[in-house]
Amino acid sequence: MKQLSLMIDLNRCIGCSTCIVACRNYHEIIDHALAMPNEIPYYIRVESRERGVFPNVGVDTWVMPCQHCPDPKCLLSCPERAISKDAETGIVRIDRETCNGCKTIPETMAAEKIKINPCTAHCPAHINIEGYIGLAANGKYKEALALIKAENPFPSICGRVCFHPCETHCNRGEIDEPVSIRALHRFLADLDLKAETRYVPPVKDRKDGKVAIVGSGPAGLTCAYYLAQEGYQVAIFEKAPVPGGMLTLGIPAYRLPRDVIEGEIQVIRDMGVEMKTGVDFGRDVTVAELRGEGYGAFFFGVGSQVCKKIGIDGEDLTGIHPAYDFLMKVNIQTPPSLGKRVVVIGGGNAAFDAARSARRLGAEEVIIAYRRGMEEMPASQAEIQEAEAEGVQIKTLIYPVRFIGTENRVRSVEFIKMRLTEPDESGRKKPEPIPGTEFTLDADDVIVTIGQQTDWSCLTSDEGFFQVDPVTLQGRDPDIFAGGDAVTGPRTVVEAIAAGKEAAISIDRHFRGVDLHENRVKDWTYTAKVQKEKFDPAGRAPMSLRDPGEREKDFNEVCLGLTEETARQEAARCQSCGCACIQSCPYGVIQYSFQKKSSHKCDLCFERIHVGEMPVCAEVCLTDAITFGEHELVRQQAEDRGKKILKNLSRESILYVK
Ligand SMILES: Cc1cc2nc3c(=O)[nH]c(=O)nc-3n(C[C@H](O)[C@H](O)[C@H](O)COP(=O)(O)OP(=O)(O)OC[C@H]3O[C@@H](n4cnc5c(N)ncnc54)[C@H](O)[C@@H]3O)c2cc1C
After folding, report:
1. For residue 525, which phi and psi values (nearest 5 degrees)?
2. Neighbours of 111 (CB within 10 A)
3. CATH superfamily entry for domain 210-305+454-512
């Protein structure tokens, strides 16, 4: 069957709704009171930018039908295999009998359906969390991993170190405890790491465009991953001898084993991305040189790697280590030799990484000195507990005044006691020194975790500009993009992943000459509706840890992960707040019917077109505004009707059916 299209002529539509009524009648979709606001359950959804769903008329009105994607994410995400793609026509269909609305069984399961799940909304990479958990609960591990990898190339890494905002906002937390989303990520990805045949995403036919990526942290690697999938020729230039950025150079191996990082990076190599390590961009090679070699776009994911100075006397004494320099040396197997007593200044995760690493390097006494109280400490609770179990001491409400040394080597730190006053702009109580409370702590070594900043010397001033458009990540030069910590300052792995993904979308559009801004910002507002009474409390599966006495002696992994049994139990705790397919659809065209307790969407009147009839909407249209037929003819007709239609002929207003 030839590729078919459905098109609406916006100039002819008079907003009479006949098509909608016909669609609703034909497909037996009945309006009902439970419909969410702005969610009217029929297949043709008419929208107006100005007047909301289902306005009367307007040139600003368009239909948003199903695109019948070549590689539909909704199909991938369905735990019940209720979604299929017809082999002959390419039409994507939802089987109403099989679809259970993602566990919507009245009175027994499920929160009231919401369009956007809080977990997906709060994940910076917007992973279809409900979808992959639903697949995992059904034992469909490979499908679950493929669904994660559609949005995030590093599930094994994020399954270990992500700060999991998804769990913080999980509706299940209002009943007992949030679902262990991060641990499930890890479980699925680790299965793949151990598999004989790894999952490698499909790569499209090779395109001419050449992209240079500077920095192989999660931002740069992610950008490469998505551009490689689109068929671009991608080369990564990395200053360090190994790829991975802070994953490899900052985060210690006992939290993130090196073979896990290497395993996930290998997939990107297998997709054809070239990795050139040991290249200091800006010094060894420049933008101008690579432009001359035909590179058409650049992504700078150079991170935020320059340690800030604390700015007190004695900072240059031997034995004082900026945290990142210290951790990098540990991570590249050239650790400094430490004395017996180590003081770590700071209260974030980097401080704990440094302190726990110092213990593992043999320091007998390791003290974390933090200027606020325990409640204000930015490090995660798990990190604090694990460190304390390993013998790390924590002293709060103290701040260093000067480092004291003899023979150019640090011997002690003078501190002053602090008290907390009104909250500052970060919302945390502001610390202020208490005069006359100075005291000293002996220290053989001091590790300072004050903060990081970006070194932009890789871009000479006439070539680049590090301020970028916040949506497209494009810089002043149209072929230069930047993202991750380099632009935001030190943040998180998953935020760097999200930036790399957005940059890849922009670079692809840049090559195709498409508007970089169009349809980029999705509304992630959600309504949390937990039906607590429908659930029996069931605590989350515990993550087992190695014994503290044993683990503080080496850099082997501390957390041991979930077993298959506990992973399945944990996955079953997910309430399915929404429907997996609805979360996946990039066009927002799948809807949930409260009446039928299932999802539904346009199937182009599959039965009708198979017996040579038109889709009902096209048949009933009073003004002949809906055209259905072979794609090229429809397009030609659109062109014949004049420029205005073409201008409005966005990708969303045409259906492609092979
Ligand atoms: C100790 C520590 C622990 C952390 N723990 C966590 C955690 O548990 N969870 C979490 O989510 N986040 C954590 N983070 C933060 C996280 O690692 C970063 O937010 C993330 O790695 C940023 O990714 P990026 O790609 O933007 O930059 P980076 O990971 O910093 O990568 C930048 C890369 O660019 C390279 N580069 C720089 N300049 C050049 C140049 N001129 N030429 C070529 N290459 C260059 C660098 O060598 C580096 O490889 C931690 C950070 C640190 C320091």
Report:
1. -70, 140
2. 23
3. FAD/NAD(P)-binding domain (3.50.50.60)
Place of tokens 């040139």: 59
Domain boundaries 116-199+533-577, corresponding CATH code: 1.10.1060.10
Which tens digits make up the pLDDT trace of 120-138? 999 999 999 999 999 999 8
- Looking from the CA of residue 244, the nearest atom of ligand 1 is 49
Domain boundaries, the chain: 4-74+584-653, 116-199+533-577, 210-305+454-512, 308-451
Ligand 1 pocket, 351 CB below 6 A?
no
Q: Is the beta carbon of 346 within 6 A of some atom in ligand 1?
A: no
Helix (H) or strand (E) holding 48: strand 46-48
Q: Which atom of ligand 1 is nearest to the CA of 220?
A: 25
DSSP H or E segment with residue 393: strand 393-396
For ligand 1, atom 14, name the residue with the nearest CA. Answer: 492
- Integer Cα distance of 272 and 525 in angstroms: 37
Tell me which of 242, 251, 368, 463 to substitute to probe ligand 1's pocket, judged by most ligand atoms within 8 Å of the beta carbon: 251
Domain 4-74+584-653 sits in CATH 3.30.70 = yes
Q: How many CA atoms lie within 13 A of 521 on its CB side?
A: 7
Give residue-wise pLDDT tens across range 146-201: 999 999 999 999 999 999 999 999 988 888 999 999 999 999 999 999 998 999 99
Distance (Å, rounded) from C-alpha 149 to C-alpha 24? 36
Ligand 1 and 295: CB distance under 6 A: no
